[in-house]
Amino acid sequence: MPDCPFNPAAENIADLIYRFGSLQSERWNNTSSLCADYVSSDYIILHMPLTPDAVSMRVHPYYMIPSLFSPLDYNAMEASGILSAFNSPALNNQGKGVLIGLVDTGIDYRSPLFQNPDGTTRIAGIWDQSVPIEEDVLPAGVPDYYPMGGSSYGTEYTREQINEALASDDPLSLVPTQDTIGHGTFLAGLAAGSSIPQEDFTGAAPEAELAVVKLKPAKKYLRDFYLIPSDAPAFQENDIMMGIKYLRMMADRLKKPLVILLAMGSNSGSHIGTSPLSQVTQNYSGFFGIITVIAGGNETGAAHHFYASIPAGTEYEDVEIRVGKEEAERGFVLELWAADADTYTVGFISPSGERISRIPIIANNETSIPFLLDATTITVNYQLIEAESGSQLIFMRFQTPAAGIWTVRVYNTQRFKGTFHMWLPVQGMISEETVFLRPDPYSTITVPGNSRLPITVGAYDTSTGGIYIHSSRGFTPNQIVKPELAAPGVNILGPSVGRKPGSDTPMTTRTGTSAAAAITAGAAANLLGWGIVEGNYPTMSEASVKSYLIRGAQRNPALTYPNREFGYGTLDLFQTFLRLRE
């Protein structure tokens, strides 16, 4: 593969997720205007000049076009048993010697929450994907090495550079990375922020180090393809995959155990853990000392999921979608995923009554249907066997759909179970007015939270003990128990951005499974510190951490476990440590 002749982060460059072993390998090897970033033994990211074919499913399998992800957020430490663990001398490791890695919106590295008592940083490194790489900072004599571990875009800021910036009068002139959204800073504070007694605040693992990836915004061509509103925060699947690789390489370099925190979610995909990002999160699960904690999503009550079972002898199922006025200006995408070997076709009825009869399945074909009365175009792509899941996918794009009730008529053409799922985009990527009229609240865990091996977390309200009303519910369509746990996630206090020099750290509250996942990631760091760093359990793995957290979870005797809302119970680190010592 040739050296990259262009900036892969540029808007006129397309990104594709490529899986090794494809029969198309010769096609890519013979392309001169192409470069690639290595993710893992399974995937590389291809970068090439943008053409209309970059988002065509006639040309590329579904999984190759990066999905877009959104941040998942809509007195916590005591409820989670974390302060009780801190107060026990034998259990108060507080994450010392462990690295917590975030792939998110960045971090306010100037905040005292992320500094040692002497004012130096606890951040081992920041990879800002949005800052162009500077060729003159590459170490001499190390061929093909980029400072962020083998990526051809973005800029890494090392611990030494951050400390130099903190000691200067103008830190941003030396390390110009900022978290303008605040989501990453908030989560980093919950997971590993220092104690602020006057605010009654502490992070879950205040002695842990941090490694941070600031994701670059999604490119315009992908936002246009997925019909995402221009003001919605959106990030690319391939960038998240590269961020995970950076965290893994940082942990290897420092020889520290690693907790990866992912608080981004999407409704694009099979929801059974087969997407490229899901596969990457699972690939690290077999290593000792690497834990991945994922926010489950906030999709319950959003009416973005539909499930149906078509009885034998019934020709079709009508799925009604109310389209709001905001969507009429742009549009939205809709995915139908079949169960097992079932196959389906679709037809449509517009709000004005215009009907489109069943669209036949034609291999490698995209069918665009213009509606004369409603000034709408729907593009339908049948993926008879989607490469990663083995199931049928029907991908539909509604461009400038008329406001009102749309009906998708789903025909069962080959029946085994007669069941299928449909998903609209997650909150933030579609207006609140566009919903299924007969939604199903279950199987709403967002991608990649439905991956089998990582720890997926829901959110509950500590003031009532009840599940957060929008916390996504399990189980997965293939009946994997998700989430495994629930953690505090309602009105959670944490750091904000916009601190002025010399002033106190500004604080704010947020609600959602992002906060719950950050607290759980800190709890996992405490376990790794006790087990691996202190030598009590040198072979501690993701599977063992998950099992101990489940065993130590609090359970309501009035409920049956595992259940779709709480999984196996609510996080309790102190009880988990007690189980470790049994």
Q: Indicate the mean pLDDT.
A: 90
In whole angstroms, the N-to-C terminal distance is 54 Å
- Strand segment tally: 27
What is the number of helices? 13
How would you write the strand order of the largest sheet? 7-6-8-5-10-12-24-25
Largest sheet: 8 strands, mixed
Overall form: globular
How much β-strand is present in the residues?
25-35%
Rg result: 24 Å
**Unreliable runs:** 136-148
Structural features, described:
By secondary structure, the chain is α+β, with helices and mostly antiparallel strands. The chain is 19% helix and 25% strand. The protein has 13 helices and 27 strands. The strands form 6 sheets. An 8-stranded mixed beta sheet has the order 7-6-8-5-10-12-24-25, with helices on both faces. The chain has a 6-stranded antiparallel beta sheet with strand order 13-22-15-20-19-18. The protein has a 5-stranded antiparallel beta sheet with strand order 17-16-21-14-23. Strand 16 (343-349) and strand 17 (355-356) form a beta hairpin. Helix 6 (183-192) runs parallel beside helix 11 (513-533), helix 8 (237-254) packs parallel to helix 9 and helix 12 (542-552) crosses helix 13 (573-580). It is globular, with a radius of gyration of 24 Å. Residues 136-148 have low confidence and may be disordered.
